[in-house]
Amino acid sequence: MTARILGRILWAAVLGGTLLLAARMALAGAAILGMLLFLCMGLAAWVYTSQRTRASRYLLPGLATFAVFVVMPLVYTVYIAFTNYSGEHLLSEARVRAWFAQDVYAPDDTRYNFRLHPSDVPGFFQVAIALRQGEMGRNLLISRPFTIEEAAAGQPIILGLNIVSPTAPALGIRDIIEARAWLNPARFTPPGSTIPLRLVSLRALGFRLPLWNPDGDNLVNAVTGQILVPDYRRGNFVDHETGEPVGPGWRVWIGAANFRLLFADPAIRAPFLQIFAWNVAFALLSVTLTFAIGVLLASLLQWKALRGRALYRTLLILPYAIPAFIPILVFRGLFNEGYGEINLVLSSLFGIAPRWFTDPWLARAMILIVNTWLGYPYMMIISSGMLQAVPDELYEATAIDGAGPWTNFTRVTLPRIFPPLFPLLIASFAFNFNNFSLIYLLTGGKPDIVGAATVAGTTDLLVSYTFRMAFQDSAARFGFASAVATLLFIVVALLAWQQLRLSTPQAAPAPKGVRRG
Amino acid sequence: MVEGRGHRGRLVLAHAVLVGFIALVMIPLFMVVSISFRKGNFAIGGILPTPETFSLEHWRMVLGLPVSQPDGTWLEPSVSVLRWFWNSVTIAATSAFLVLLLSSTCAYAFARMRFRGRETILGGLLILQMFPMVLAIIAIYSILEAVGRWVPAIGLDTHPGLILAYLGGIATHIWMIKGYFDSLPVSLEESASIDGATPWQTFRLIMLPTSLPIFAIMFILAFIGLIGEYPLASVILQRTDQWTLAVGANSFLYEQNYLWGDFAATAVLSGLPITLLFLACQRLLVSGLTSGGVKE
Questions:
Q1: For a FRET experiment, which of A105, A126, A194, A370 has its CA 20 to 30 Å from that of A302?
Q2: Cα dist. A112→A171, A178, A185, A206, A209 in Å?
Q3: Is A281 on the interface with B (CB under 8 A)?
Q4: pTM (2 decimals)?
Q5: Tens of pLDDT along B132-171?
Q6: What number of CA atoms fall less than 13 Å from residue A425's CA on the CB side?
Q7: Which residues of B touch A316 (CB under 8 A)?
Q8: CA-to-CA distance for A33 and A25, rounded, in angstroms?
Q9: Quick one: CA dihedral A494, A499, A505, A507, positive or negative?
Q10: With an 8 Å Cβ cutoff, is B45 touching chain A?
Q11: Burial of A311 (0-12, 13-18, 19+ CB in 10 A)
């Protein structure tokens, strides 16, 4: 009974809270967002009260979370792939126009020194300006009293000769520095002038005019007369004569241009293909190596005559038990070229110091060593589960034929365990195909490919290549990176679909860490 | 007799292979433990700590105790590894619990109810989950930024925000739990529903209690998977005291500020409890990994 009442109260709190939030959003100007939230809440309320929604009650929380944090990001990423979103095209068109509107020029360089006084009325301020340059005692223009809010909003503040001057002393430079935030937008209109005065330094006001005047969609430079025309296909203002882009660009839909770039520009295509080849090789080799070692160890541990199997098994599982980021970083330190322990041992024993992080092939070898260390226990675990299902009679039958252990393994064991393990191997391939943490934490994709137009490393996988292109390249190519991500998703989705088709109705468990990729 | 000797020889060989392999695998672990007790951040006085180079300075640093400096002063550690550890544990545990909560109800609907689009949604979940989250970081970042504008408590640079982002990874769990529910006999539920139990009651009073062991396994697996998550945590958590271990540990190995010894102590301190937890549940987990797998 109390549980039901508590449940009701919880429901009321959730509904009330959402309603309040939706109202706040609507009042703050995000009407569409508020409306959406309201609709979602309505949907949830309907699902949990209607008699007709059976399964949806159980599905809604999980699927809604999935939709927000998996499906929405995915759709957004695919959308970005078709835009020119990048460091040079970061803003919306309105923001770019606002950027141009901020550009000003000085029609004359007269500077009028000013003083800021607290007005006689509390909460108000007044500004006093010397009419002639440098003079600060006589011929004062004085503003009407104004509030901070008026100044910050840029409302015109009239200056006049016949306004009563404030009695309070002028504020010091420190107070002016503090007041800059609301003095900057303030506009003071001198008598007989249409151009307002504004703050040009901490001590002086001056005339400033917008440099770019809108003319329809175009912008006209007030000084040089240069005309900028918006190019909606490129997302830039361009000079109407030369066609050169001017200023920051905005985000526009550019169709498949990012995908075309991938195949058209040799400085992008070559590194991309190289990374793609290494990516496939890395995933294949990782699965092969870990599976080979794992299945051999599992077969050894299957041998009943072997004593101490439990201890061996525990010790062999150890690499799988440690959160992967720890051994990856440990290996990064141990392999360090200058002061890593591995090179210290190698140089004292053999007098060599391999350049693990600067030679591409050594770096790749190191990555495979580390990944095999990390991955073989999983393969050992899953294959020992399968081995137990192989009936002993099969071995007895081959023993009569005089088969040795190797023949047993290749003729009896492998054919029995390989088909059911195949979906798991595909899952492992897909996981390694996108093994971001390994590459990012171990080599960071380095050493870099020579002559590449974007960031691109010889040990980069497509995921780390994409990530670095968006977050480490100075050009911040979000659009192009998203195009690569979209291609990647298609590859992985095909793999997943294959796995789904091959696996039995029971779901295959994911290898370590596959949940987040 | 000949066969017996061959048998014995093979046994010795098997032991030798296993011992040799385990020794090879253990070297990095052994190294990192010894480095954590070695003075300074470089192997100046040999690789292993000797009585002269033995030092507890890295462990003092990691545990938040003042470290003595060469000039005789004591330096308070500026970063708190224990804090990161606590962050990691709470984030991973909360996320794992919520992931199970969300996925178990979904799995119940998929396993026991028939509705339109059931197969499509199930397949779609698995395929969409394959999209590497690293690549959606820009989108997740902007979603959390937008959320944080209205509800700052679950926005960027907060633990609830990160947990919320982790909750997206429920698809594989839905599949695993559904697989388990499928293997349970429906007779118990049928008799309960004849007695007048609602679907929710059969779920809460019959399905959940019988599935507790598999939930325990999945909780630990999800926990271990999430506690080492790096890319999302590194982008969403910005302030040092909000970091998780994975983000913090990486910061010790920046080229400009190479704190190898401090890192080693951090690695041992953080790796040990999780490793022990895993080994303690080893039998459970291994059976979960294999039995949840492919049954013919």
A1: A370
A2: 17, 20, 17, 6, 16
A3: no
A4: 0.79
A5: 788 888 788 888 888 888 888 888 889 999 999 999 888 8
A6: 20
A7: 18, 21-22, 25
A8: 7
A9: negative
A10: no
A11: exposed
